[in-house]
Structure formats: structure tokens, C-alpha cells
């Protein structure tokens, strides 16, 4: 299995995941994935554990906003490097931090084979449903993600009505998919991905991803 443009894409019906360009859709989540009975996260559920030092690397430089966040636990063989963005604007920094947490929450769910509180916390609407599609695809094919992934050329734009847009390029050259049955690793190759996100600010102060587009990186990610 070869994984292309891993986060977030629609899982293909074949043995692997393949994307040249796509966007979030309205597909329903698979009931075989624990915690994925609905296409939107529960509104009343509260995260059980606050954020601590075990969280994904994306959180290490984020401002302390006092929000009680779920812990994100990634496999030991997975690392994620998020390039810094030259901004001191607190709102922009908050969007970028939650952008990174969303990416980590999806990979956490893929590794666990089930949806945890972090994905429900950082995603809503199509951003949540498309992530469930991805988790379902890996679960059904018997794979998870490993290796190192680099996120660069990151940007953010604040919009009206508590909305924002953001983007990043992804370098998969040191990442791979792992066959859970055999342990065999399948490198992802040198292809780069360009991702764009729309964020909405919820009542808890979290910039949730509610839609996205994705394409091959091309000149935008050189």
C-alpha cells in the first residue's frame, strides 16, 4: 500500500489511498470504526483529559489559552514537524496551532483504528466526516502511518464571522505506511501535498476544521 497526500483525503476502494486532487465531501462514516456512528462530532461531549507534555509536537509552541484539551498520543515511530510561521498575532497563532492539532488528531485515530476525543475536538462538519473516511480506509485495509512528516509553507488568513483559512505543504519523503499484519513498511515517496483548510471558531475557543481542499504540491510546494 502506498499512501499519497495522507491528511486529509478520501479513502479509495482499492488497496491503497491515492489522490491527485480532491476536496471534502458528504460521505457517511463507516460503522466499523469505533466512535464513528455520526458524521459530526457530539456537541455535548467534554474531553476527559487536559493537554499535557505528552501531546503531539504541534502543541509545544502554542500559546497557553487555558482551554481544556484532549491529549494526543502518536506512535513512537511517528514524528511530525510543523514549520514556524512569522507572525505574532495571537489569533493567527491560535488557528495555526489548531491546524496542527487537527493533523495530529487524524493520525492518532488512524494509528488507534478508532476515533478518539481529539478528532471530535478539532473537527466539525465535512472536516470531521472526511477524516472518518480516511480512518475507515486505513482500518479496512489494515494499515497505519509511520515515519516523519514535515509541514512547511504554512499560512493563515483571518476572515469575518469567526472564520479563518489556512494552508500548508506536506513532505512525505520520510513517511511510510505499515502493514499491521506483517509489519512491512511502504515508503510514500517524494510526492508533496498542498492542503487548504477552512476553520470556524466554536464556543470553546477552538478553531475547528470544517472543510478542506487538497492537491499535489507542484510549484506551490517547491
UniProtKB/TrEMBL annotation:
Source species of the chain: Streptomyces lonarensis
Biased composition (Acidic residues): 42-65
UniProt protein name: Lipoprotein
Sequence segments annotated as region (Disordered): 21-71
